[in-house]
Amino acid sequence: MSKGTFKSYVNSGESSKSASRNNIQEASNSTPNPEARVIEGELVIGQAHNVLKFDAFSGLNSGISGSLYCTNFKISFSTATKPSHDLVELDHKNLLYKENDIPLTSVEAVYQVSSSRRRLLSPNSTVSNGIKVLEIRCKNFKVHTFSFKFTQKKENKTIVNTILHHAFPKKLELLFAFSFQLPTNSQPLSPTVNNSEKNHSKSNGRSINLTKFFRTPPVVPPSPTLSLSEERPIRTPQYRKVSDWEAEIKRTNGINLRVTLANQAFKISDSLPEYFVIPMGCKAKDKDSLHDGDLHHAATHFEGGRVPFWCWSHPNGSMLIRMSPLRLDTPHLDQEIRMLKIIQASHPYEKNPLTLDLNATCPSIKDIQSSFQKIRELCVPETLKEFWNSDPRWLSSVEATKWLQYVRACLSTAAYVATTIAHEQKSVVLKEFTGRDFSCIISSLVQLMLDPYARTQMGFQSLVQREWVIAGHPFLTRCGHICPSDGQESPVFLLFLDCVFQLMEQFPDVFEFTDTYLITLWDSTHIGVFGTFIFNNEKQRVQTCMRGEDGKTIKLPTVWAWTLQYKMEDLALFNNPLYVAKHDVSDNFISSNTIGFEDSTQLGCNPGVYRNSMHLSEQTAAMFEDYAKMKRTFSLQPGRKKRGGNSGASRQVFEVPETQLELIVPRISGPYIKLWMRSYLRWIPSIHIVGGGLPTQYQQQCKVVDEIQQLRDQVDQLQSNSPSRVEKRRSRFFFSCDNERDGMHGADVVSSAFPFTTSDLAFIGGDRRSFIGTPLALFLRGQSLLDADTSALEGLDD
């Protein structure tokens, strides 16, 4: 017997208060309290029963009833209520936590809500009196609201105090990652355990049942090529071995480079890895060569000991280097000059490198945090009324946060560096005071613009591991995993992901993965399970993991083991069908970044997936007969102007060497940079477009590409004249042309917020006021507000 919803008695008056309490007590007596869903290593610390969980923005009028638990991993709401529809959100499919669970490290703030005000509860707060309504706001903008109206006062006090104590840990070792660990004797991505004896492994003295992490053993679908986002036999390199760095040098065809061991045991820098790559300089000239002894001497003069280290090499021999400036108190100012000469000597043409001071071109950490807080206030309103009241000034409010301005600044700086490396054939040295924040962003974006491998899922994961995790980005501090953060919390990594999203919007077919992958990666930074995002640097990781029980090294799971969180069929949501269409479906497919963009004043702000309309000019069309020549021409802004055809239209085209075919440079003017709505607004049900939005386009793209691949397989089979029947290929997409999943994932369920929130209007409730014709509606549809007639909006009610 399942419990019903509480629409009938949540806001009951005082006269019927006792009757309502009797109703909920009778329901709890007839149905046992739902148990907490825990994984091995997870311990229940506090609990409360007869708790009401409100639907998002329902006005505290509808929701479900159940029990609230607090464990050493998450705040978990368990209910016996079964919804009358199929949940399709990705949180529901997560194998570690469900849609009603809140990982402790994802809690941003806890509020006590009353009829007149909201009071912020600090980590040190002690709740003495009963709290009727508790609101928990998460770092990914999701809001959970609970009512203890029918909960015993003792349980009420206990559960709230427990949440406040454990949601804001003061020590790194208190994170759940040190209780949940992968067994050392099993493959983490595809465990195949059959008997009960093998199903249990020891981790930090606790028994972990592997079968609990998977509903069914994940099966890796066959893949005809290794360029797609399915699970590969190779793993994401961790760059904690010399061989990983040597492989990266070989992949980029880097010259005059070597792996240095100077930082073993972190002798020269706490934030640099033990192994990294440096330019060798010129061996013929000893003064222009760099030895490990030189690094030991020079490191004492650089901030944090972060001497220049190699990031990436271009085929023309130019390099991307990162470094910190000299310490203010050092008298040896010649150390930086010598390092720059060594970088120059490592260039095949010995060109002077460009040194770019990121402190002068990028915002500060506090600026990013302040802007993020304004974005959060805008996208997480207290009530729907407040949200709709902000609608007439929505665009100006978004711009006032300066978040998009900072996105433009990062993209602009990265584009400048990328074109300098590609066209001027110069090495570029990124210099930042700490060398651990914006140099991570710019270096990563430059490689995404220049290196096609970085745009694959494996390449992107290698990029994040190399430029962020190993290079010492302070994830622990920036993500606010422990309290207090001393004012150093700032979403630098989110800013980078937002920049990647902007690139994906302008070049939709050059990335192997989708923005669903990016959003899931951001959410994963706040789970507190993966060792990838819980340390400030490599030294802290090594020292912490060496303090295991019985002197054993603690092995933490990596976020790149995606099958720990999702089944393979759900990981198919990461695959970009447009990328597959470009690289696998058609051999004659013309790359979008090999054809000049042509401005169209009719496109507006955000015309959809193909925001940059592709047009073949007369000049480009004439090049079809010579395909090799055509592939050397692509549009770049800014660039040299070139006349095309007889129309006299001015085109901006660069002639570049064959090695620079994959360079992508985004446009950064106002209309081309937009708010990442699928990430920031996904939890507001009133703006969801059921059966519409980009996910619906994604659904159709998957089906079309999948059908083309199915037809190609059939043609290949017929041409082979093979009498044997070929087994039907398993689709690599979440949506396939055979319509097997349309019953649960069809257009009637998919919304603009898919796959992160439910799409059943009867379930999500809330204010469904029509916003057609409002500025927000125009913004969501991607229309330009500069050309639109908004005079009819003046008469709209507030």
What is the approximate shape? globular
Helix content: 25-40%
Number-wise, the strands total 19
Content of β-strand: 5-15%
- Ranges with pLDDT <50 over ≥5 residues? 1-29, 183-233, 587-661, 742-748, 759-774, 784-798
Please summarize what this structure is.
The chain has 798 residues and is an alpha+beta fold.
Question: Would you give an account of this structure?
Answer:
The chain has an 8-stranded antiparallel β-sheet with strand order 4-3-2-1-8-7-5-6. It has a 4-stranded mixed β-sheet with strand order 13-14-16-15. Strands 17-19-18 form a 3-stranded antiparallel β-sheet, with no helix packed on it. The longest helix has 27 residues, at 694-720. The chain has 26 helices and 19 strands. Helix content is 31%, strand content 12%. The chain is globular and about 80 Å long. Helix 11 (403-423) crosses helix 15, helix 12 packs antiparallel against helix 13 and helix 19 packs parallel to helix 23.
Properties at a glance:
single chain, 798 residues, alpha+beta, eight-stranded antiparallel β-sheet, four-stranded mixed β-sheet, 26 helices, 19 strands, 31% helix, globular
Q: What is the fold's blueprint, element by element?
A:
Blueprint: H1 17-30, E1 44-54, E2 63-71, E3 74-78, H2 90-93, E4 101-103, E5 107-113, E6 118-121, E7 133-138, E8 143-147, H3 153-166, E9 200-203, E10 206-209, H4 242-251, E11 257-260, E12 276-279, H5 292-299, E13 309-313, E14 319-323, H6 334-346, E15 354-357, H7 358-361, H8 365-379, H9 384-389, H10 394-400, H11 403-423, E16 428-431, H12 438-450, H13 457-469, H14 475-478, H15 492-506, H16 515-524, H17 538-545, H18 568-571, H19 577-585, H20 618-621, H21 627-630, E17 633-635, E18 641-643, E19 650-655, H22 677-680, H23 694-720, H24 742-745, H25 761-764, H26 775-781
Parallel strand pairs: 14-16, 15-16
Antiparallel strand pairs: 1-2, 1-8, 2-3, 3-4, 5-6, 5-7, 7-8, 9-10, 11-12, 13-14, 17-19, 18-19
Helix pairs in contact: 11-12, 11-15, 12-13, 12-15, 15-16, 19-23
